[in-house]
Design brief:
4 copies of one chain form a homotetramer.
Chain A lengths: L5 E5 L7 H14 L5 E4 L13 H11 L3 E7 L7 H7 L12 E8 L7 H12 L9 E4 L8 H17 L2
Parallel strand pairs in A: 1-2, 1-3, 3-4, 4-5
Helix pairs in contact in A: 1-5
Keywords (chains A, B, C, D): Flavoprotein, FMN, Oxidoreductase
Protein name (chains A, B, C, D): FMN reductase
Organism (chains A, B, C, D): Rhodococcus rhodnii LMG 5362
């Protein structure tokens, strides 16, 4: 288990966001160690709007070569952000996340969008070829640090996720 | 692996349907052996409309105690059938499919609904607590016996599914 | 406006449910008059599991001939019920709700499934040919009688709904 | 009817795309006249990644002040693009498209994603407050110019759309 490579991807237009922090906490809670790679998508800037940028390609590669990745987004318009989708659009359909175990994570201000990680974000990750054993996780951005939900999720799903990610 | 208990659930209003046949083929292709239990939901009849029927309870239990289950439906109105959902409504939210690896399968007349198993059926199985490592599978009801798609799916996802289902 | 024919359809396995009551309130709030037809789906019983029953056909016809219909369901497993879907499966794809303005309504115990009427129920009604100008409405089954949400929805969307329904 | 203000929004990372062309054709087929405003989202460039840019604000305003808008995207990863979502993220939740009749349009290489405009794009437009009487339209990017589907859609839904858009 200690050889699983873990990454987090945060798709918030604000750098160093609570989204990124929550993703890091979830990755740590699920795997027991801090993530190896962190992609704060907004750092890639305008290169996300086109194809072929080397920094974007390097970020895509580090995600594709991970064993387990937390993909995190705030909730904008009842679903994941355009910023996160821009990054996901850079992966190859059906192949880009092959052999990657993906954890869909969304944060929001209230409970109304709790379904979105499972019904909206998870299918996109599936389309990229990811393995998605667990449902998505939805956290409240005002309480995620202390409400214990990330830990409950890790307790419920951590074993299945790490097992799927172990080669 | 030979100890994985495998079931198929088919939610077609017609008994002995192509849905059931396709589900059995997929279960066999994925696991290498014929399913241990077969639930043709329509056989449960009017008891599905209420709660507490012993035959329904026995069917629910045999599914809940399986390690890997193919949940299959024809495509009605761009999604799974009312008959299948009636049966799924009998399971306990978050717990009814705990420790069950679920494979969402839908059949249809044309390709337009290929997304439905992943975006519509899979989230319901997640809500029941199932582990869903692989995307859903969509088969054409006119060609599934010979088009090789069930075998491709088994080739692509069988190892991850059986691994997740093995205790 | 007084010539708009209004119906409510409630898909709760319990007859005379809060689902039916809420649907009636929403229809009344939106149109200003009590519904002309009420279909409590569970009353149709085991005939829903097959095709060609005359009572089911009469219920389908009365809905199809309405101008505005509230389709209501409790939230089971994060989506509409099998009972409601059984009834919807009786309509012809693309045509069964032609010229019907549909209002998707779901009730639940908590706020987590607030998206479901718009993302899950509304597309099924669209697939049947319905006109769906407004988003779905989600009500809490413990407070819908007094929390004013049905009235807010009627205030926000009533004019567009009635206008679309007027011939 | 001649006073309806019509816009098209195309969210393709390539400027002057087939997406934009198809959106213009659909708007014209539905309303009988060429669109008044055209937003090729990619023209807004890196300003889409932040908030408060005056060109983005002007584009948002011209859409918000329209009566009928075709929102168009190619299919990337089984859903709309990150580029389109970036632009939609600039609108105010529940209000940004108030009194706008929205037509969700997606183009793809094959028929497998035909559901996406109705199940994925339409709910985002609803969340922004748009009126969405008609289902989404999915066109094949290789045949949309001649296959007659845009015209069929206009025939089936044009009257309801224009009526909803007329003040």
């Amino acid at each position: 288990m200690q050889f699983v490579i873990v990454s987090v991807v945060a798709g918030n237009p604000k750098p160093r966001s609570r989204t990124l922090d929550a993703a890091t906490r979830v990755a740590t809670a699920v795997t027991g160690t801090a993530p190896d790679h962190t992609i704060d998508v907004i750092d890639l800037g305008a290169a996300l709007l086109g194809w072929g940028d080397p920094d974007v390609a390097a970020a895509v590669r580090s995600v594709a070569e991970s064993d387990l990745v937390v993909f995190a987004s705030p909730t904008f318009k009842a679903t994941y952000t355009g910023v996160l989708k821009l990054f996901l659009d850079q992966f190859e359909t059906g192949e880009g996340l092959r052999d990657v175990v993906a954890v869909p994570l969304m944060l929001g201000a209230g409970p109304a969008h709790a379904l979105a990680p499972t019904t909206l974000l998870s299918p996109v990750l599936s389309e990229l070829g990811a393995t998605t054993p667990a449902p998505g996780l939805y956290l409240l951005d005002s309480t995620y640090e202390t409400d214990g939900r990330a830990e409950e999720y890790a307790e419920r799903w951590g074993r299945a996720l790490v097992r799927a990610a172990s080669r």
